[in-house]
Amino acid sequence: MSQEIVKALTGPVETSFALLEKFIDSCPDDLWAEKKGGWPLWQQIYHAIGAIDFFIEVPGETPPAPLAPAGVGSLTEVAAEAVGKAEIKAALESAKGRVGKFLASLNDADLAKRNEPLFARAKFEMTLAGTVSMLSAHALYHIGSCDAALRDRGLPGVF
Length: 159
Prior knowledge:
Structural class: mainly alpha
Order of helices and strands: HHEEHHHHH
Strand content: under 5%
């Protein structure tokens, strides 16, 4: 079956991952735990990465153990202390692998199907195409908040 549309959706996902990585690499250590937009910068990046395991299920894989309590990852509580850049970057690399496997498991016809694991977990109605698009858009939203924090400091943003 065709994967032309799946491959087209891969580009924005890869862009999102590249910007997340660029932010992790360029964020000064003294800004990493600063609150902007109500949440510490690192926590917004962690949330964007963690959303992947909430919204997708990779056939035959178990998501990794979380780096912080569930409320920290879901942005319902502010973390008591920051998780370091190295741990967040490792989580990003792991997530990239899972998303790659997820996308490779799809064909174009699958994209119109309901995301059954998400529906079973959260009763959230979304197609697989919607899921892929939403994850990219969601990551870009949080990168934008973090990018603004860099620019507020007079630093170049990641965009």
